[in-house]
Amino acid sequence: MPGGVNSPARAFGGVGGEPIVVERGEGAYLWDVDGNRYIDYVGSWGPLILGHAHPKVVAAIETAARRGTSFGAPTAAENELAQLIIDAVPGIERVRLVSSGTEATMSAIRLARGYTGRDVIVKFAGNYHGHVDSLLVAAGSSAATLAVPNSPGVTVGTSRDTLMLQYNDVIGLTQAFADHGNRIAGVIFEPVVGNMGVVVPIDEFLKALRALTRENGALLICDEVMSGFRVAYGGAQERFNIEPDLTTLGKIVGGGCPVGAYGGRAEIMDHVLPAGKVFQAGTLSGNPLATAAGCAMLRLLRDEPPYEKLERLSARLADGLHQAAVDAGVPHQIARAGSMMTLFFTEKPVTDWPSASRSDTKRFSRWFWGMLDRGVYFPCSQFEALFVSAAHAETDIDATIAAAREVLGGI
Ligand code: KE4
To answer: Which residue of 27, 33, 195, 269 has the fewest CB atoms within a 10 Å radius of its CB?
Structure first.
C-alpha cells in the first residue's frame, strides 16, 4: 500500500517515525500488535464518541450481518437511520446516505451548483472537507482571486471555480461576495474546525456567512462530518444556532462503519436524482451493516446522552493540560468545543490558518512521542483535533495529565 497506509493522516508524517499498528480497541483503549496499551484520544479521527467496540453497536452489526451484508435495494434500516438524522439535525428535512464524508461533501457541492445554476464554491484555509478535487486547493495570488490546485492531478480548470478565504475573516468574506456574489453557488465551512486543529468560529463570522449567502442566493453548507453528533446531538448548528441550507455528516453517524450523509431543506434535496436531476449514486450507500451500526450509535446518543459527561471529562483534561503547560513554561493555546480540542504550541490565540500554522510543529512532535511512550495516543499532527469519548474515565484523564506534566517539563 502506498506509504504503508490507506490514508495519509495515519502515517505519522507530521511527527516522523513509524505509525503503531493496531491489534484491537476496547472502550477508551487501543492495543498495538506489540501488546502496548494506549489511552486513545484519536477515536478513529472522531467516530468513536462512545469508545471502541461498544457492545450495542457490535451486537447490531452482528445481527445485521447474519441477514446479509449488502442488497443494493431499499431497506428498513436505511430509512430508520435517515429518520434518526432528520429528527436530530435542525437543518435536515431530507437526507441521502453515502459511504464517506468525502462523498457527502462532493455531492453537496454538486447539488449546490445544480440547484443554483452557478459555478463558484467558497471554502476556507485550514478547513478540510475530504479529497474532493475542487476542494484540494490553495489560495490564489491574493485572497480575492480564485484558488489553485494543491495536489498533483487536480486540474487548473477544476480549481478555478473555487475561492479560498480565511476562516473568521468577515471583511474577506464580504469582499468576496462583493466581487463574485452572483457567481457563488455555495459556501462550505466547518462550523467547528477540526482540521487545522480546533478553531471555534466568532459570532460575527457565523452571522456574516448566513447573511451574505442568503442575500446573494448562495447555499450555506455546514460540513459537520466531524462536529455532527460530537459537539451536541444536533451538531454545531444546534450548539451555535446556525441555519444551514445543506449539512454534511460522517464519522459518528456510522458508528465507526462507513456512512456519510448530506441533507437539507426538502426543496433543495428534492433536486437529487431520482427526485430531481442532480446525479449521485453508490453501490454501498445505506449499507445494512453500516446503517445498523449508525442506528445503534444514534439511539444510544439520543436515549442516553453522554454530553454532560463528555463536557466534564473534556474540561478536566483541557484544564490539566493548560496548567501543566503553564507550570512547564511552555507557550501554548488550548482550543476546545465540547469533547474535541487541540493543544497548540504557540504564543498567540489561534483563529485561522495563518495563526494555526505559526505553531511549533517540532515541539509538537516531541510532545506526541513523549506521550506515546507513556501510553497516551494523541492525533499525530498539530493540525488535528483530539477527542474524548464517553468510555474515558477520570482516572484516564488524570493519568494523561500526569504524563503531560512529565513530557511538557522536558520539551
Ligand atoms: P472522510 O472521506 O475521511 O470520511 O471524510 C472527509 C472529511 C470531511 N469533512 C470533515 C470536516 C472531515 O474532518 C473529514 C475527514 N477528517 C479527517 C481527519 N481530519 C479524516 C482522517 C483521514 O483523512 O484519514
So the answer is: 33
